[in-house]
Amino acid sequence: MIFQRPMVWLPLFGLAFCPVGAQAQQGSGAYAPRHITSSRADSEANAALARLRADAIAKMKESRARYEQLLSLYEEEKKRLTEDFEKRRELYQQGLLSRSEVAPVQQALSASMRNILEVKRWIMEDDIAIAEVTLRDELLRMPAIARGGYSEGAALIRFNGGALWSLAEAPRIEKFFSETFGKALPVSAFGQSPAHDRLRFDHRDAMDVALHPDSNEGRSLIGYLRQLNLPFIAFRGSVPGASTGAHIHIGKPSIRN
Protein backbone atom coordinates (compact mmCIF):
# COMPACT_ATOMS: atom_id res chain seq x y z
CA MET A 1 0.00 0.00 0.00
CA ILE A 2 1.36 3.43 -0.99
CA PHE A 3 1.37 5.93 1.84
CA GLN A 4 -0.11 9.36 1.24
CA ARG A 5 2.66 11.90 1.18
CA PRO A 6 2.36 14.15 4.25
CA MET A 7 1.75 17.77 3.40
CA VAL A 8 3.52 20.60 5.17
CA TRP A 9 1.02 23.33 5.87
CA LEU A 10 2.60 26.66 6.74
CA PRO A 11 0.87 29.82 7.91
CA LEU A 12 0.64 32.42 5.18
CA PHE A 13 -0.63 35.22 7.35
CA GLY A 14 1.59 38.14 8.30
CA LEU A 15 2.91 38.57 4.76
CA ALA A 16 0.62 41.38 3.65
CA PHE A 17 1.76 44.96 3.81
CA CYS A 18 0.87 46.79 7.01
CA PRO A 19 -1.52 49.74 6.63
CA VAL A 20 0.44 52.92 6.11
CA GLY A 21 -0.86 54.65 9.19
CA ALA A 22 -0.60 51.70 11.59
CA GLN A 23 3.04 52.05 12.51
CA ALA A 24 3.11 55.77 11.96
CA GLN A 25 0.76 56.34 14.89
CA GLN A 26 2.91 54.39 17.34
CA GLY A 27 5.62 55.85 19.55
CA SER A 28 5.57 59.66 19.51
CA GLY A 29 2.34 59.79 17.53
CA ALA A 30 4.03 61.71 14.72
CA TYR A 31 2.90 60.69 11.24
CA ALA A 32 5.77 59.10 9.29
CA PRO A 33 6.09 59.85 5.58
CA ARG A 34 4.25 57.38 3.35
CA HIS A 35 7.42 56.20 1.57
CA ILE A 36 9.08 55.35 4.91
CA THR A 37 6.18 53.24 6.20
CA SER A 38 5.82 51.61 2.80
CA SER A 39 9.51 50.76 2.73
CA ARG A 40 9.31 49.41 6.27
CA ALA A 41 6.27 47.29 5.31
CA ASP A 42 8.12 45.93 2.28
CA SER A 43 11.09 45.02 4.45
CA GLU A 44 8.94 43.30 7.04
CA ALA A 45 7.01 41.40 4.35
CA ASN A 46 10.23 40.24 2.73
CA ALA A 47 11.62 39.15 6.10
CA ALA A 48 8.42 37.21 6.84
CA LEU A 49 8.60 35.57 3.43
CA ALA A 50 12.24 34.61 4.01
CA ARG A 51 11.31 33.04 7.37
CA LEU A 52 8.45 31.13 5.74
CA ARG A 53 10.76 29.73 3.06
CA ALA A 54 13.42 28.82 5.62
CA ASP A 55 10.78 27.02 7.68
CA ALA A 56 9.52 25.19 4.58
CA ILE A 57 13.01 24.05 3.64
CA ALA A 58 13.74 22.87 7.20
CA LYS A 59 10.57 20.77 7.11
CA MET A 60 11.47 19.43 3.67
CA LYS A 61 14.87 18.34 4.94
CA GLU A 62 13.23 16.60 7.90
CA SER A 63 10.70 14.85 5.68
CA ARG A 64 13.44 13.89 3.22
CA ALA A 65 15.30 12.10 6.01
CA ARG A 66 12.11 10.18 6.85
CA TYR A 67 11.63 9.31 3.19
CA GLU A 68 15.15 7.89 3.08
CA GLN A 69 14.30 5.64 6.02
CA LEU A 70 11.03 4.61 4.39
CA LEU A 71 12.86 3.89 1.14
CA SER A 72 15.29 1.62 2.97
CA LEU A 73 12.38 -0.33 4.47
CA TYR A 74 10.70 -0.72 1.10
CA GLU A 75 13.93 -1.90 -0.51
CA GLU A 76 14.39 -4.50 2.21
CA GLU A 77 10.79 -5.59 1.68
CA LYS A 78 11.36 -5.80 -2.07
CA LYS A 79 14.42 -8.00 -1.58
CA ARG A 80 12.50 -10.36 0.71
CA LEU A 81 9.49 -10.55 -1.60
CA THR A 82 11.68 -11.10 -4.65
CA GLU A 83 13.35 -14.11 -3.00
CA ASP A 84 9.96 -15.49 -1.92
CA PHE A 85 8.46 -14.98 -5.37
CA GLU A 86 11.37 -16.68 -7.15
CA LYS A 87 11.09 -19.71 -4.88
CA ARG A 88 7.33 -19.95 -5.35
CA ARG A 89 7.57 -19.51 -9.10
CA GLU A 90 10.10 -22.33 -9.31
CA LEU A 91 7.82 -24.59 -7.26
CA TYR A 92 4.86 -23.59 -9.44
CA GLN A 93 6.79 -24.53 -12.58
CA GLN A 94 7.51 -27.89 -10.96
CA GLY A 95 3.81 -28.35 -10.31
CA LEU A 96 4.23 -28.21 -6.53
CA LEU A 97 2.30 -24.97 -5.99
CA SER A 98 -0.88 -23.57 -7.49
CA ARG A 99 -1.13 -20.19 -9.22
CA SER A 100 -3.22 -18.89 -6.32
CA GLU A 101 -0.25 -19.51 -3.99
CA VAL A 102 2.09 -17.48 -6.21
CA ALA A 103 -0.15 -14.57 -7.21
CA PRO A 104 -0.39 -12.82 -3.78
CA VAL A 105 3.39 -12.64 -3.45
CA GLN A 106 3.72 -11.34 -7.01
CA GLN A 107 1.13 -8.64 -6.29
CA ALA A 108 2.88 -7.65 -3.06
CA LEU A 109 6.18 -7.41 -4.94
CA SER A 110 4.61 -5.15 -7.58
CA ALA A 111 3.16 -2.93 -4.85
CA SER A 112 6.54 -2.72 -3.13
CA MET A 113 8.19 -1.64 -6.39
CA ARG A 114 5.54 1.04 -6.89
CA ASN A 115 6.14 2.28 -3.35
CA ILE A 116 9.87 2.56 -4.01
CA LEU A 117 9.28 4.62 -7.15
CA GLU A 118 6.82 6.87 -5.30
CA VAL A 119 9.16 7.58 -2.38
CA LYS A 120 12.03 8.24 -4.80
CA ARG A 121 9.79 10.78 -6.53
CA TRP A 122 9.07 12.49 -3.20
CA ILE A 123 12.80 12.69 -2.46
CA MET A 124 13.50 14.09 -5.93
CA GLU A 125 10.80 16.76 -5.55
CA ASP A 126 12.25 17.90 -2.22
CA ASP A 127 15.78 17.93 -3.65
CA ILE A 128 14.66 20.14 -6.54
CA ALA A 129 12.81 22.54 -4.24
CA ILE A 130 15.82 22.79 -1.93
CA ALA A 131 18.08 23.44 -4.93
CA GLU A 132 15.83 26.26 -6.16
CA VAL A 133 15.79 27.99 -2.79
CA THR A 134 19.53 27.47 -2.24
CA LEU A 135 20.36 29.09 -5.59
CA ARG A 136 17.63 31.72 -5.43
CA ASP A 137 19.80 34.54 -4.13
CA GLU A 138 22.51 33.78 -6.67
CA LEU A 139 19.94 33.91 -9.46
CA LEU A 140 18.52 37.22 -8.24
CA ARG A 141 22.01 38.73 -8.09
CA MET A 142 22.73 37.85 -11.70
CA PRO A 143 22.32 40.59 -14.29
CA ALA A 144 19.36 40.32 -16.61
CA ILE A 145 20.10 38.87 -20.02
CA ALA A 146 18.68 40.22 -23.26
CA ARG A 147 16.02 38.37 -25.19
CA GLY A 148 17.69 35.45 -26.89
CA GLY A 149 20.67 35.74 -24.51
CA TYR A 150 22.46 32.71 -23.08
CA SER A 151 24.48 32.55 -19.87
CA GLU A 152 26.29 29.57 -18.36
CA GLY A 153 27.91 29.47 -14.92
CA ALA A 154 29.10 26.92 -12.40
CA ALA A 155 25.65 26.47 -10.86
CA LEU A 156 23.16 27.76 -13.43
CA ILE A 157 22.54 27.86 -17.17
CA ARG A 158 20.10 30.50 -18.39
CA PHE A 159 18.48 31.13 -21.75
CA ASN A 160 16.04 34.01 -22.25
CA GLY A 161 14.25 32.64 -25.28
CA GLY A 162 11.91 35.04 -27.01
CA ALA A 163 9.31 32.53 -28.18
CA LEU A 164 5.95 32.45 -26.45
CA TRP A 165 5.88 29.64 -23.91
CA SER A 166 2.98 27.96 -22.18
CA LEU A 167 2.36 24.51 -20.78
CA ALA A 168 0.50 23.77 -24.01
CA GLU A 169 3.97 23.38 -25.58
CA ALA A 170 4.82 20.48 -23.27
CA PRO A 171 3.57 17.69 -25.57
CA ARG A 172 5.98 18.79 -28.31
CA ILE A 173 8.90 18.62 -25.89
CA GLU A 174 7.76 15.27 -24.52
CA LYS A 175 7.46 13.90 -28.06
CA PHE A 176 10.98 15.04 -28.97
CA PHE A 177 12.43 13.39 -25.87
CA SER A 178 10.55 10.10 -26.25
CA GLU A 179 11.48 9.83 -29.93
CA THR A 180 15.11 10.65 -29.18
CA PHE A 181 15.67 8.48 -26.10
CA GLY A 182 12.85 5.95 -26.25
CA LYS A 183 11.40 6.83 -22.86
CA ALA A 184 9.16 9.38 -21.21
CA LEU A 185 10.40 12.84 -20.30
CA PRO A 186 11.04 12.80 -16.50
CA VAL A 187 8.75 15.70 -15.56
CA SER A 188 8.97 16.40 -11.83
CA ALA A 189 6.60 19.39 -11.67
CA PHE A 190 3.98 20.48 -14.19
CA GLY A 191 2.64 23.89 -13.30
CA GLN A 192 2.08 24.90 -9.69
CA SER A 193 2.85 22.20 -7.14
CA PRO A 194 2.33 22.01 -3.35
CA ALA A 195 6.07 22.58 -2.88
CA HIS A 196 5.92 25.81 -4.90
CA ASP A 197 2.88 26.91 -2.90
CA ARG A 198 4.77 26.44 0.35
CA LEU A 199 7.76 28.37 -0.97
CA ARG A 200 5.58 31.14 -2.48
CA PHE A 201 7.07 30.61 -5.94
CA ASP A 202 4.97 31.29 -9.02
CA HIS A 203 5.30 28.11 -11.07
CA ARG A 204 1.87 28.18 -12.73
CA ASP A 205 3.23 28.27 -16.29
CA ALA A 206 6.48 26.37 -15.86
CA MET A 207 7.65 22.78 -16.03
CA ASP A 208 10.55 21.11 -14.20
CA VAL A 209 12.39 18.20 -15.78
CA ALA A 210 14.52 15.97 -13.56
CA LEU A 211 17.59 15.81 -15.79
CA HIS A 212 21.12 16.93 -14.98
CA PRO A 213 21.91 19.66 -17.52
CA ASP A 214 25.39 18.19 -18.15
CA SER A 215 24.10 14.70 -18.93
CA ASN A 216 23.66 13.57 -22.52
CA GLU A 217 19.88 13.75 -22.15
CA GLY A 218 20.04 17.14 -20.45
CA ARG A 219 22.31 18.62 -23.10
CA SER A 220 20.05 17.29 -25.84
CA LEU A 221 16.97 18.83 -24.21
CA ILE A 222 18.75 22.16 -23.70
CA GLY A 223 19.76 22.19 -27.37
CA TYR A 224 16.18 21.52 -28.42
CA LEU A 225 14.82 24.28 -26.17
CA ARG A 226 17.29 26.73 -27.66
CA GLN A 227 16.31 25.59 -31.14
CA LEU A 228 12.67 26.39 -30.28
CA ASN A 229 13.79 29.66 -28.66
CA LEU A 230 12.03 28.70 -25.40
CA PRO A 231 13.22 30.18 -22.08
CA PHE A 232 14.73 27.93 -19.42
CA ILE A 233 16.97 27.82 -16.36
CA ALA A 234 19.08 24.71 -15.80
CA PHE A 235 20.15 23.98 -12.21
CA ARG A 236 23.30 21.94 -11.85
CA GLY A 237 22.50 21.19 -8.21
CA SER A 238 22.20 22.85 -4.81
CA VAL A 239 25.75 21.75 -3.94
CA PRO A 240 28.54 22.53 -6.44
CA GLY A 241 29.79 19.33 -8.02
CA ALA A 242 26.82 17.27 -6.80
CA SER A 243 23.72 16.22 -8.70
CA THR A 244 21.31 16.74 -5.80
CA GLY A 245 18.41 18.83 -7.05
CA ALA A 246 19.74 19.14 -10.59
CA HIS A 247 16.95 19.86 -13.07
CA ILE A 248 15.85 21.98 -16.02
CA HIS A 249 13.16 24.59 -15.38
CA ILE A 250 11.29 25.37 -18.61
CA GLY A 251 9.55 28.74 -18.67
CA LYS A 252 10.16 32.10 -17.08
CA PRO A 253 11.83 32.18 -13.63
CA SER A 254 9.52 31.36 -10.75
CA ILE A 255 12.16 32.21 -8.12
CA ARG A 256 11.22 35.73 -7.18
CA ASN A 257 9.64 37.58 -4.30
3D architecture notes:
This protein is an alpha+beta fold. It folds into 2 domains: 20-134; 145-250, no CATH class. The chain is 54% helix and 9% strand. The chain is built from 7 helices and 6 strands, in the order H-H-H-H-E-E-H-E-H-E-H-E-E. It has helices at residues 20-24, 34-93, 99-134, 136-141, 170-181, 194-199, 216-228; strands at residues 150-152, 156-159, 187-190, 207-209, 232-235, 247-250. It is globular and about 80 Å long. Residues 7-32 have low confidence and may be disordered.
Structural key phrases:
single chain, 257 residues, alpha+beta, 2 domains, 6-stranded antiparallel sheet, 54% helix, 9% strand, globular
Write the SSE topology.
Elements: H1 20-24, H2 34-93, H3 99-134, H4 136-141, E1 150-152, E2 156-159, H5 170-181, E3 187-190, H6 194-199, E4 207-209, H7 216-228, E5 232-235, E6 247-250
Antiparallel strand pairs: 1-2, 2-5, 3-4, 4-6, 5-6
Helix pairs in contact: 2-3, 5-7
Helix content: 40-55%
Residue windows where pLDDT falls under 50 for at least 5 positions: 7-32
Largest sheet: 6 strands, antiparallel
The average pLDDT score comes to 81
Q: Report the end-to-end length measured between terminal Cα atoms.
A: 39 Å
What class would the helix/strand composition place it in? alpha+beta
Which of globular, elongated, flat, extended, rod-shaped describes the shape? globular
Count of spatially separate domains:
2
* Count of DSSP H/I helices: 7
**% residues in beta strands:** 5-15%
SSE arrangement, N to C: HHHHEEHEHEHEE
Counted beta strands:
6
- Rg over CA atoms, rounded to whole Å, is 24 Å
Question: How are the strands of the biggest sheet laid out side by side?
Answer: 1-2-5-6-4-3
